[in-house]
Amino acid sequence: MSRRTVLVTGGNRGIGLACARTFAEQGDRVAVTCRGEVPPEVLESGLLAVACDITDADQVEAAFARVEEELGAVEVLVSNAGITRDSLVLRMSDDDFTDVLEANLTGGFRVARRAVKGMMRARWGRIVFVSSIAGRIGQAGQANYAASKAGLVGLGRSFAKEFASRGVTVNVVAPGPIATDMLSALPEDQQDAYADAVPLGRLGRPEEIAAAVRFLASDEAGYITGAVLPVDGGLFMG
Length: 238
What we know:
Elements: E1 5-8, H1 14-25, E2 29-34, H2 40-44, E3 48-51, H3 57-70, E4 76-79, H4 94-122, E5 125-130, H5 134-137, H6 143-163, E6 168-175, H7 181-184, H8 188-197, H9 206-216, E7 228-231
Parallel strand pairs: 1-2, 1-4, 2-3, 4-5, 5-6, 6-7
């Protein structure tokens, strides 16, 4: 496999950073977007860090321009950036709902639309959206997050149908409970409850999500498009 240019949005920590690292380890040229200060882990991994808030169209355009200038046209996009603003429905404000959709769903659309232009010209490309099991089964206190992640499935499959004839595959990975900083901030008994609900009896690791993303972006996965791949320890079997 030849070296490719890979862009991972929200690649400064957790699943995004694990994805970026796994591509870098196989020799790809990898850039990650960050909204805030670039953590040392990104710099130590030899990744190109690009400042970008994906809710801002101008910042998205500027980020792609920099990646194209320094690494070349984006051939693999991992749309991972997102936010949470958890609250029960009756306490959730309109802003809490729309802000999460803007970041997780509209932001994903925005970066994929920009990336696919170059992929069409090259007649080859890989787009992987990082969704969540919450988008498949729902989650109390996360109506906004679940809606945004469910929307990525329809978005990804629409992209898959529109651009299949140009050699671009588009797939979705749906992680279950993963041992990230966000989850580790929860009380230990709550983390244990999440693990107990998983048939495999444990939380997933970011590297396990990254392995699935890497496969879907590979040449070997060239006949897979429009798929939703659960990486959840068997939590969702439907």
